[in-house]
Amino acid sequence: MQEHDGRPGPGRRHVQLDPACPTRKLLDRIGAKWTSMVVEVLAAPGELRFSELRGRIPGVSQKMLSTTLQNLVADGLVARRVEHTVPPRVSYRLTPLGDSLEVPLAALREWAERHMVEIDAARTAAPGSG
User: Fold this and answer.
1) pLDDT single digits (tens) 13-54
2) Do 78 and 98 touch, CB atoms closer than 8 A?
3) Helices (H) and strands (E) in the chain, counts
4) What are the tens digits of pLDDT across the range 55-73?
5) Other C-beta atoms within 10 Å of 38: how many?
6) How far apart are CA 3 and CA 1, in angstroms?
7) Of 69, 64, 61, 71, nearest to 42 (Cα)?
């Protein structure tokens, strides 16, 4: 049996279960709760400054928002614009690639909202949950 290197070949998709699979690593980043929230907030037209983003995402710490934004910028999902003022003004917006991520993330959020009551009931009924 040939070992899979995580890259797709002819007629073959990434093997997500392989820890070295690039798709798995990307899904780990996209699946983070703060990523979904940042993408949702930035999906509105225009740019937002860091403080505006933080104000629209209750519970996110400055450090976590900064880390999330750095990852999204590195992945090409968010564009960062710096105005060279004192202090510098930094604004963020989704790139076209990031904008395309909003559709599947919105579907996942909608699914979660639609099924949250069932999930809560199952967790309450699960052995050891009480």
Assistant:
1) 657 777 788 888 888 888 888 999 999 999 999 999 999 999
2) yes
3) 5, 3
4) 999 999 999 999 999 999 9
5) 27
6) 6
7) 69
